[in-house]
Amino acid sequence: MPFENEVTYVKYVKNGKEKEFNELYDKACEEAKKYIGKEYKNIIGKEVEESNKIKHTSPVDGKEIGIFQAGSQKYVDEAISMLKKAQKSWFKSGYVNRARVMLKAADLMSRDKFLISALLAYENGKNRTEAMADVDEGIDFLRYYALNLIENQGFVRFTGKGYENEESMSYMKPYGVFAVIAPFNFYAITAGMVAGPLITGNSVLLKPSSDIPLTSYLYVKTLIEAGVPSENIAFISGKGSEIGPYITAHKDISGILFTGSRDAGISIFKNATKDRPKVVITEMGGKDTITVTSKADINKAVNGVYRAAFGYSGQKCSACSIAYVEEKVYDQFLTKIKETTDKLIVGDPKKLETYMGPVINKEAVEKFKKYSEVARKDGKILSGGNVIEGPGNFVRPTIVTDLPKNSDIIRHELFLPFLAIVKVKNLDEAIERINESDYGLTGGIFTEDPSEIQKYFDEVEVGTIYANRERGGSTGAMVGSQPFVGWKLSGISGKGTGSFYYLQQFLREQSQTIAH
Ligand SMILES: NC(=O)c1ccc[n+]([C@@H]2O[C@H](COP(=O)([O-])OP(=O)(O)OC[C@H]3O[C@@H](n4cnc5c(N)ncnc54)[C@H](O)[C@@H]3O)[C@@H](O)[C@H]2O)c1
Ligand SMILES: N[C@@H](CCC=O)C(=O)O
C-alpha cells in the first residue's frame, strides 16, 4: 500500500465538489455543538475525575467549551505505573499488529474529519480549510508511520556472523513509557507525537495543551477504539507549568517528546534530566524568514509571504515573521503586500469568507498590543496594528517596516500575525542575517534564478526550506515529502516529523548474538 496524503479540500475542489465540502463542514459545526458544555475526565484505563478543574473557553467568543481535569500527582503515578506494566505486551503484539491498529485509527479519523475540523474552529479558532488541512496531516502522520514501520520490518535486521559459530541481529526495542507534551496550534502535532512512540511499542502518557484538550481527548478515544489497549495510552490534562515538571522528572518516564515554545522546551530539558539521563526530544519555536530577491516574480512572492505570515493568525512555528526584500524591489513589494493584507477578512473561523480567525487567548491579545506599541516606537506600521473589539480574541494582520536589527520584533518569536519587512542590499546580506538568528526552523526564497536558489539552499542554517512556494512560502509541509525539522534552538533531534528517520528516535538498539 503506497502512502498517499489525505488532502481533503484539494480533492473536493479537483472533483468540482467545493460546495459539498462547505455543506459537510457547516453540518459538522452543528454536530460539534453536542460536544460543547460537557465535563471531560482524564483517561487512565478508566475515566478519572480530579478535584481541581480547568475551564476551557473558546477564542472565538469566550464561551465555555467544556470542563477538564487538572491532573494530580496521584493519578500521574497511577497512570505511569499502569503504562509501564502494560508496555511489554504492547510491544510483543508485534509491529504488524501495531501498524494495523494505527492504520485503523487513521481511517476512523478520516471518517470523523469534518467533525474534528469543526471542533478545531471552536477550540483553537482555525478556519475551515486550515482546520481540515490540520486533521489531514494528523491522518497522514498515522498512515506514514505505520507504513514506515512495515517497510522497515519493525527495525529488526540480521547483521551476519562476526565469527563462524555466531549469528547476530540488531533488534530495535522501545524505551518504555514516553510522556508527550503537545502545543495548542496543531491537532496533527498531538496526533503525530503520540503515534510515533506508540507505534514503535512504547506506552504513552499524553499531556495535551490546555487550549485544545477536547480534540486531544477525542483522539485518545479514537486510538482506543482502533485497538490500542487502554493500558498503553493515558490522557492527563492539566496546566503544563503545574503538573508538567512532575511528569517530566518522573523516574518511570523513559522518554519525553515535547513540542512548544523555546522557554518551556529548555526548562523541560533541564528538569527531565536533572536526576538521570533520558531521551528528551524538544521541538521548539521559530523566527522564520522569506527572502525576496530582485529576480523574484513579485506577485508570487507577495502571495507566498502573506499566506505564510497570516495563515492561522501567524500561530504556526513555520510562520514567516520576517521578509528580507532586496532593495531594488522593496517599494514594489511593500505596495502590493499592503494592498493584499488590508483586504484580509478577520472573523468567526466557521464563516466561509473568513481568512483569519482569532488568536488563541487573552494573553496573546495582550502580547499583540505590547508588540504593536514596540512596532510604533521602533519602526512604522504599514498595515494593521489594532485589536478588533468584541468578545473574541481578534486582531488585524500587521506589517511593520523600518525596524532596527536589535528590535524585539526582529529577535523574538511572537507567534502572532505580525510580519516585519526588512530591506536588504542583496542575497548575501539576507543569508547572513538568517544565520545570525538563534532559530533555524523554516524559510523560503523567491527568485526565478536557479543559482540564487542553490546558494540559498547551500548556505542557510535552517531545517525546512522552500523556493518559490506561492501556497505558503515557509509553511505547510506535507507528510512524507517534506520532513519537518528545526535546527539550532528550534529543535534538538535533527530528525523531521513525517520523515523516514522519525520512528527510530523512540527505539534503542539491542545487539543480539547466539554462539553455536
Ligand atoms: N518546532 C516545531 O515543530 C513546533 C511545532 C508547533 C509549535 N511549535 C512552537 O510551540 C509554541 C506554541 O505552542 P504553545 O503556546 O502551546 O507552547 P508552550 O510551550 O506554551 O506549551 C507547550 C506544551 O508544554 C506544556 N508546558 C509548558 N510549560 C511546561 C513545563 N514547565 N513542563 C512541562 N510541560 C510544560 C504546555 O502545557 C503545553 O502542553 C511556539 O513557540 C511554536 O513555535 C514548534
Ligand atoms: N507543520 C506545519 C507547522 C507546524 C508548526 O506549528 C507547517 O509546515 O506549516
Automatic annotation (TrEMBL):
Keywords: Membrane, NAD, Oxidoreductase, Transmembrane, Transmembrane helix. Pathway: Amino-acid degradation; L-proline degradation into L-glutamate; L-glutamate from L-proline: step 2/2. Residues 50-508 form the Aldehyde dehydrogenase domain. GO terms for cellular component: cytoplasmic side of plasma membrane. Pfam families: Aldedh (PF00171). Its EC number is 1.2.1.88. The keyword Nuclease does not apply. GO terms for molecular function: L-glutamate gamma-semialdehyde dehydrogenase activity. The chain crosses the membrane at residues 175-199. It catalyses: L-glutamate 5-semialdehyde + NAD(+) + H2O = L-glutamate + NADH + 2 H(+). One of its GO terms (biological process) is L-proline catabolic process to L-glutamate. InterPro entries: Ald_DH/histidinol_DH, Ald_DH_C, Ald_DH_CS_CYS, Ald_DH_N, Aldehyde_DH_dom, Proline_metab_enzyme. It comes from the Archaea. This is L-glutamate gamma-semialdehyde dehydrogenase. The lineage of its organism: Archaea, Methanobacteriati, Thermoplasmatota, Thermoplasmata, Thermoplasmatales.
